[in-house]
Every structure is written in C-alpha cells, then in structure tokens.
Design a protein that fits this description.
It is a multi-pass membrane protein. This protein is an alpha/beta fold. Helices cover 46% and strands 20% of the residues. The chain has a domain of 145 residues: Spore Coat Polysaccharide Biosynthesis Protein SpsA, Chain A (Alpha-Beta Complex).
C-alpha cells in the first residue's frame, strides 16, 4: 500500500453504507476517503466517529446540476491528492480494490471498470439483459467510463474547465468521457438497482437523456436498432426469441456474469423500446430524490 501514490477517493452518499466501511479499510497512510453528502440532515452525519482517513464533506444543494455532479465537484475541490478515484456506495469493493485500480493506472493510465445491473424489482429484473447488452458491454468493449469505478489524475484532464461544466449538467461520467480517455479493464461489478417500479421507470429515462445530450449519434443508433429488433420480434417471434436468448447469454459470458435473466431478452424488448421512446419525450425525471428538467447539455433545472 505504501508504494503507491496517495489517493483521494470521492464517494457521494448520504448514508454510511458497507461500501464506505470497505473503502475505509483499504486506505493507506496518506490516502483519504471523502464521503460527500448534501447537508447536515443526512444520516451519514449521525455517526459519532469515523475511521482514520475519512472526511465527511457537505456539498450543499445543487442549483444548476444534478446532486451527483454537485457532489463530485465538491469532492474534487476538497481532495488533497493528485490521484483521484470516483466510486459509488451501492456495490461491493473487495479488499484489494483500491490497490488493484492503482496498479492498473500505473500500467495503463486512467482506468475504469464495468457495472452489471441486477434488478431488485420485477421491471428492473426484466430489463437486465438489455441493460447488459446496451449499457455494460459497450462500456467494456469501447473503453468507456463508468463513474462508479474510475481512477485518473488531475493532470489527465483540464480540471478547471471540467468542474465549470460539471456544475451545469446532470451526468458526471457522461461529461468525463468528453474530457478523458480511459482503458476499461473489464472487471465487472454487480450493482443492484431499482426496488420500486417508479425507480425502474425513471432510470431508463435518465440514461436515455444522458445519451441524448452527450452522445446523440449513439441514441439515434440505439433507437434504430431497437425498433428493428422489435419488428423482428413481432414478425418472427420464435426465431427472435432463440436468437436474442443466445446473444444475451454470450453477452453475459463476455462480461463474466452468469444470470438466468438472459432468457428474458425476448419479452424485455417489448418493454425496453417503449421506455426508450418515453425517455426521449419525457420532460422531467427523478434521480436521488430530486426532480430535474434537462433541456440541454448545460441547461439543468432542479425542479424539487
């Protein structure tokens, strides 16, 4: 641990979760874990003490950006070190996670990992295979960034310009992709999502709008391919069901995940495509308890 450069881990969360404890246990003597929350009423502030190396920082309420973007910006400004890690509080960080990421950076430069989203409600479970194929696989194969596990150094980006833009947008990792090239090392992390049908509906709306404003070409291609797949599923249901199932089993193999939900790929298409179109026309969406109106890449209103 002492041989690697000191690292600042930026973790936006309003609660002290298992991930907080896992990361705190991995800190070296000079490392720090910055737990970034909104304000004094958040549950994370109720602890009497925190492990050594942990700092609790209030980001305040966002004005023209998402709560996540606001927290990341506050964390980067408060961080003491050159080497930075962004991560999330909703997946398991094994004991060697930080050391492994640092070793990867030393070998490749900026690096990221891959999320595999596992549903906690019926709709999220149904959509699992399409999240894997349309979300996780392109991140892995395309050397793209997942904000839940990315390591870079300040000198890798134009930090001042990035922070200015970050405080005016919704997607932290969507914006970072415009500033930073990474090597995606392909390690897959299981990330539970959903819990309620409302959450399951809001998530694809947010993801669709991230693509719309940051990667318009990608969302156009996604809509076109999805409509073609839906047409095939309607016109040749047996053939489509077999092909989609086999393809999604192959996707899972590439991601290193064994999930029975690959067999849901065929019925998922009939839900995914309407949600995709709904996400394009929806005027607001909810994320982390706040409702946002996103009218342009740098035109964000916090509605409530």
């Amino acid at each position: 641990m002492s041989a690697r450069p000191p690292t600042s881990i930026i973790l936006p969360t309003t609660r002290w979760t298992d991930a907080c404890a896992e990361l705190a246990a991995q800190l070296g003597d000079s490392d720090e874990l910055l737990v970034i929350h909104d304000g004094a009423n958040d549950p994370v502030t109720e602890r009497a003490d925190y492990p050594e190396g942990v700092r609790i920082i209030a980001a305040g309420e966002p004005e023209y950006c998402s709560g996540k973007a606001n927290a990341i910006a506050a964390g980067m400004e408060a961080a003491r070190h050159e080497r930075l890690v962004w991560t999330d509080d909703d997946f398991h960080h094994p004991p060697d996670w930080l050391a492994t990421c640092s070793a990867d950076y030393d070998e490749y430069g900026p690096v990221s990992e891959v999320p595999y989203f596992v549903g906690r409600d019926p709709l999220s479970v149904l959509l699992e295979p399409l999240y894997a194929a349309a979300g996780s696989l392109p991140l892995s194969l395309g050397n793209q960034i997942w904000g839940g596990a990315v390591m870079f150094e300040r000198g890798d980006i134009d930090e001042a310009a990035f922070l200015d833009d970050l405080r005016r947008t919704v997607s932290d990792d969507g914006l970072l992709m415009e500033y930073l090239q990474v090597t995606n090392v392909g390690r897959t992390r299981i990330v539970p999502i959903g819990g309620t049908i409302r959450e399951a509906v809001e998530r694809p709306v947010r993801w669709t709008q991230i693509l719309r404003w940051h990667f318009p070409g990608a969302i156009a291609g996604t809509v076109l391919v999805s409509l073609l797949v839906l047409a095939g599923a309607i016109l040749a249901p047996l053939y489509a069901a077999a092909v989609l199932t086999v393809l999604h089993l192959a996707v899972n193999e590439l991601l290193g995940v064994r999930r029975w939900t690959a067999v849901l790929a065929y019925p998922a298409v009939f839900v995914f495509v309407p949600l995709l179109l709904y996400g394009l026309i929806r005027r607001t969406f909810v994320w982390g308890g706040r409702r946002y109106r996103w009218r342009g890449k740098f035109d964000v209103t916090v509605v409530q």
